[in-house]
Design a protein that fits this description.
Number of domains: 2
Shape: globular
Structural class: alpha/beta
CATH superfamily of the largest domain: Response regulator
Number of helices: 13
Distance between the termini: 41 Å
Radius of gyration: 21 Å
CATH class of the largest domain: Alpha Beta
CATH architecture of the largest domain: 3-Layer(aba) Sandwich
Length: 385
């Protein structure tokens, strides 16, 4: 186990690129134990833990998500913490392996100073922790994870605040049928993604009366995009992350007729834009959060915190991380004490929380108001929304 006791103090006005470079240097030291990336020097203060998967396929998601969460907790503690107590925000990084993921869960469960876990990222790790928390007898809260899977039984210990992948797809497909599109092609970058999402997508396409064509899973996404570009399909639903999407975009030729790729909330359009350079491909991206350029008070607060503590541009994923931390803090504010059992009791009430425009409410234990918006990477290379 590796501890960075001064990491939290040095992150203000600290370049994330430098921070990630330091992280990368430590990752080579990890074998089976997750790495604790930040803890403050106040061991008696209550701690909230955030476990993130930094493996190659999800590190882009986790990096942005953690930046937003860090900004939120620095802002919260600078304003007096929770009921006068500074809250330690401990980030634990895993390599995505079963050994490290399970070790991280056991570490949190056995740490009495950890009053709640929150913002678990990305989807595979969030799904695992959801299953662990459901079968575990402990009162460790699993709050506001980046849980995209719609098929995971959340049980009593997980408290989602973000729309899942099924809700995002439904929103995207419905918006397309409203403008006269009656057929769509779906691309899965891996067999695992196909197995996880195929039935949901087929069911939604049928309910929306969309003709659905599924492309076989291929290893070469660039070549697959070139093949699809020769067809007349107006829309392609891409069910994968940013690195896979960029591979696909590199082979995309929209031709004379403007056609779009639809991507889901795991994708960072700003990163995709940067990786594509001067080559522009139109992409519609669904988001589980409000527009980062919007006027909601909570979004303005997020932009101010991000500008104060980091040199990063606003992104949907870092806003999600910010909201995850803010929701956790809002619920803890109503707990009778800063203990694990009191935190679990407060979350279990599932009370409606309105975070200056981002509303979280539950109906019979399930998230009632799943938030979905859309942004766009235009044919001119601009991110709109």
């Amino acid at each position: 186990m590796i501890f960075y006791s001064k990491m939290t103090q040095t992150l203000s006005h600290f370049s994330r690129r430098s921070f990630l470079h330091k992280i990368g240097a430590t990752c080579a030291l990890a074998v089976t134990s997750p790495i604790v990336l930040s803890q403050s020097n106040a061991p008696r203060n209550p701690m909230v833990a955030q476990v993130v998967d930094s493996s190659n396929l999800t590190q882009d998601i986790s990096k942005d998500f953690v930046v937003g969460s860090r900004a939120a907790w620095q802002e919260i503690n600078a304003s007096g913490g929770i009921r006068g107590q500074t809250i330690r925000h401990s980030v634990i990084e895993t390599d995505g392996s079963a050994a490290q993921n399970n070790a991280a869960w056991l570490q949190l469960r056995g740490d009495s100073s950890c009053i709640a876990s929150f913002g678990t990222c990305a989807d595979n790790l969030a799904s695992l922790f959801t299953q662990q928390s459901r079968s575990d007898a402990s009162e460790l809260t699993h709050a506001a994870p980046w849980l995209q899977s719609a098929s995971v039984d959340q049980g009593l210990n997980t408290f989602s605040i973000f729309s899942n992948r099924e809700q995002q797809i439904q929103h995207a497909l419905k918006s397309m049928t409203n403008v006269g599109v009656d057929n769509i092609m779906v691309v899965y970058p891996s067999q695992a993604e196909r197995s996880q999402n195929m039935q949901d997508i087929q069911r939604m396409a049928q309910s929306l009366k969309l003709a659905l064509r599924e492309m076989p899973v291929q290893g070469d996404l660039t070549n697959q995009a070139q093949q699809i570009s020769r067809t007349t399909t107006p829309l392609v639903l891409f069910v994968g992350g940013t690195p896979e999407l960029v591979q696909f975009m590199r082979g995309w030729n929209p031709g004379k007729t403007l056609r779009y790729i639809i991507a889901l909330a795991d994708v960072n359009l700003q990163t995709a834009q940067q990786m594509m350079g001067n080559r522009h491909v139109p992409v519609i991206g669904t988001q589980a959060v409000p527009m980062v350029s919007g006027s909601l008070p909570i979004v303005r607060r997020y932009r101010q915190a991000l500008a104060k503590y980091y040199d990063e541009p606003p992104t949907a994923l870092s806003l999600a991380g910010y909201l995850s931390a803010r929701y956790t803090a809002a619920v803890l504010q109503g707990a009778r004490s800063m203990s694990r059992s009191a935190a679990f009791e407060a979350f279990s009430r599932r009370q409606t929380i309105d975070m200056e425009g981002f509303r979280v409410s539950y109906d019979k234990g399930k998230l009632q108001n799943a938030y979905v918006t859309q942004s766009m990477l235009s044919a001119e290379g601009r991110v709109i929304g």
